Amino acid sequence: MVKICCIGAGYVGGPTMAMIAFKCPEIEVVVVDISVSRINAWNSDRLPIFEPGLEEVVRVCRGKNLFFSSDVEKHVAEAEIVFVSVNTPTKTRGLGAGKAADLTYWESAARMIADVSKSDKIVVEKSTVPVKTAEAIEKILTHNNKGIHFQILSNPEFLAEGTAIEDLEKPDRVLIGGRETAEGQKAVAALKAVYAHWVPDDRIITMNLWSAELSKLAANAFLAQRISSVNAMSALCEATGADVAEVAYAVGKDSRIGPRFLNASVGFGGSCFQKDILNLVYICECNGLSDVANYWKQVVHINDYQKSRFVNRVVSSMFNTVSGKKIAVLGFAFKKDTGDTRETAAIDVCHGLLGDKAQLSIYDPQVTEDQIRRDLAMNKFDWDHPQHLLPSSPTASKQISVVWDAYEATKNAHGVCILTEWDEFKNLDYDKIYQNMEKPAFVFDGRNVVDAEKLRKIGFIVYSVGKPLDPWIKDLPAAPSS
Ligand SMILES: NC(=O)C1=CN([C@@H]2O[C@H](COP(=O)(O)OP(=O)(O)OC[C@H]3O[C@@H](n4cnc5c(N)ncnc54)[C@H](O)[C@@H]3O)[C@@H](O)[C@H]2O)C=CC1
Ligand SMILES: O=C(O)[C@H]1O[C@H](OP(=O)(O)OP(=O)(O)OC[C@H]2O[C@@H](n3ccc(=O)[nH]c3=O)[C@H](O)[C@@H]2O)[C@H](O)[C@@H](O)[C@@H]1O
Which residues form the active site (predicted)? Predict the structure, then answer.
């Protein structure tokens, strides 16, 4: 029986390995992590991450050919293929701080693999890493020269949260990069044979290591760039009376552009887009390509602009101050169908409103109070470190309350900010919400999920991103200078 071990039982390691175990009953898969609480959760009825369809897949395989363990060294030593899917956060200190990838966790995993290995292994980069990381990893793996051979492969992951199981089951493509030597190609073939259990041959793309590493950063940069492009248009739509949904529809009808990923929003979030673009920017700078670096930097800049533009709309609409006013925040996760809050636009929007002394009442169907308080107390970039290293007692803020119901959140509020596109926000009883709010009652829809005209008929003043403006808002200042 082939043995696979995956280091890192997070959003990528957990679901990816569960899918391999599900599709390959003759392969034994062990997912290991230094976080004992995370491993315990994977072995319990309440998995550590919320992902539609994941529970069913785990239930079928767990205890048969899928195992979760904190005995990292033992399982790494026994495996023939070792995936590494650990955190690669943005560096907060030292050389490249605020841009470069922090490879601390990767390096410590690689050193451990080198130390405990007694047989040849294929080591697979599953984490998103800077291009040329495989070269550094090779050096670490071979440093103690025990006569063991390691082949490094790059096999970046393209799943999106909320649709991880669907994406893993029917991937657009699986990328495998390897050395162009006979041993390298043998390793590529071995990993390809795993995916070939369920992925059609024409969707498994093999290439050189550096192309595979860079393709992952490039794909995320292109995706994020589409969102910043449509968000930049949304500002112009508001200034001109055009409707961003209509513009995006017209643009997306061009088959060369395509319709997906053109939804204007309060800004993209998630653990990777910003981190990976900053990393790309840093690599460009290191290679003397400052014009290319500046081009990609703008994608992050427009995203920050979009978030502050939203806060500005809220504050300026409400008589230029939200001090002491209750603002309901509906949705805190970075997108619907996940409980993940990493880099969610909600953090920056809440910080903006708290800075203007608002009283926030926050509701999200999947995010706990502890997580929300922790996120709002944390420094930039600190969130992307292993869970057990994160601060455990977030500072309580009297300006924040977290509730478990949208009606409770909006009761006696002056304004409502919709920051995640959860389906339930489309069908709330807005008549009831209006009755229980202070007047004038405002709705700021950062995800364009509500029917603005219907809400205006009820009596709300409504702002929707990139849509023709409410007469109340029309003559107010639109954006902060940047
Ligand atoms: N979250 C996502 O949707 C995607 C993430 N990625 C990339 O995958 C990588 C992992 O991301 P996530 O799974 O989201 O992170 P995560 O934070 O959910 O999981 C990483 C896990 O690695 C563990 N870990 C760290 N160092 C370790 C070590 N030395 N030994 C054992 N365990 C260790 C941590 O305790 C943590 O549980 C990142 O590079 C990310 O950029 C790629 C595609 C999608
Ligand atoms: O490397 C990663 O981590 C992953 O990053 C993204 O996946 P994810 O961040 O999970 O979710 P997306 O669906 O891409 O959404 C990212 C953010 O963009 C926002 N978004 C997305 C699409 C859109 O049209 N408009 C928009 O504002 C979402 O609300 C969310 O905040 C990519 O889609 C994955 O392919 C990639 O593997």
Answer: 272
